[in-house]
Design a protein that fits this description.
single chain; Four Helix Bundle (Hemerythrin (Met), subunit A); two-stranded antiparallel ribbon; globular
């Protein structure tokens, strides 16, 4: 990935929270706990997941920047959603966590020299070395992917309630 592409992904990462908040304006709160299927997540669960995921991602990014060569923590996101009872968690607190963690990580990423993006660590879900560049590819698209999931949930809910 060249510097222009990397900078573009860093900016997309930095805009993620604002993109999410803009989209949520169009999603009625009365459908936020609607699940299209029993094993799929509701909007509420997605928002809490984003806070937990972002917190884990921020630690991974910092580990890659400061302590390359080590191991990164894995986690079972579906188990977290069930065991931590995401529907019982405060979505407003989750959004605030997401906002602050993403903002601080975005500011940190902008200051990193090119070579840091080649730092590697062992990720439990990947056989190949996991770089900060790979991290950026994943997390710059994480919120946009969930925006599509939320929009899809809304379409299904709207079609069911008429």
């Amino acid at each position: 990935m060249d510097k222009t592409e990397r900078d573009s992904k860093i900016e997309l990462y930095g805009r993620g929270y604002d993109m999410l908040m803009e989209m949520l304006k169009d999603i009625p709160p009365e459908m936020w706990k609607f699940k299209p299927e029993p094993k799929e997540w509701s909007v509420h669960e997605v928002l809490v997941h984003l806070a937990d995921s972002e917190s884990n991602a921020a630690l991974r990014a910092r580990k890659l920047i400061v302590e390359p060569g080590g191991a990164l923590m894995g986690y079972d996101q579906d188990k977290w959603a069930v065991e931590l009872d995401y529907h019982d968690q405060n979505w407003e607190d989750a959004l605030e966590t997401l906002r602050l963690v993403r903002k601080t990580t975005y500011e940190l990423l902008k200051k990193q020299p090119d070579e840091v993006f080649e730092h590697t660590a062992k990720h439990p879900e990947y056989d190949e070395p996991y770089t900060l560049e790979k991290w950026l590819n994943i997390y710059s698209e994480h919120i946009p992917g969930h925006i599509e999931q939320i929009r899809n949930n809304y379409r299904i809910w709207r079609d069911k309630v008429g």
